[in-house]
Task: structure prediction
Amino acid sequence: MTDAPKKLPLWILIVSGLFALMEIMVSLSMCFAPESTLEKVDFSAQGVEYVVKMWAVRQFALGVIFAFATLKRSAPMLFIAYLFFLVMFIGDFVIGVTQQETAMMISAVVMCAISIIMMVVIHKKK
Result:
């Protein structure tokens, strides 16, 4: 018997590729049209543009990580990317609670669930 890693299902690669594209598109949107992404932010306040650019770079980095892991078809790399996704959306949930943003809380819970499901499926395929 060989201990060759099992091949990742195509649907995992498709979902991961879509997340990569989504993160890169959000990043570009935040760089070039932040007011379309961040409706409640006062862009005239000092330091806001700096924070938005930092957030855009975070999103871009996550998109590149997802894209690279997907193209490499690497289960360990995708697992770590979804773990980062989970931690990020737990943070978004906490922010949603503190800001009393129901939509943010709901989307964070949904994305946490997706991240956990993907991590479980990827772990089983290793």
Summary: Residues 10-125 form one domain. The helical segments are 10-32, 34-37, 48-72, 75-99, 102-125. The longest helix spans residues 48-72.
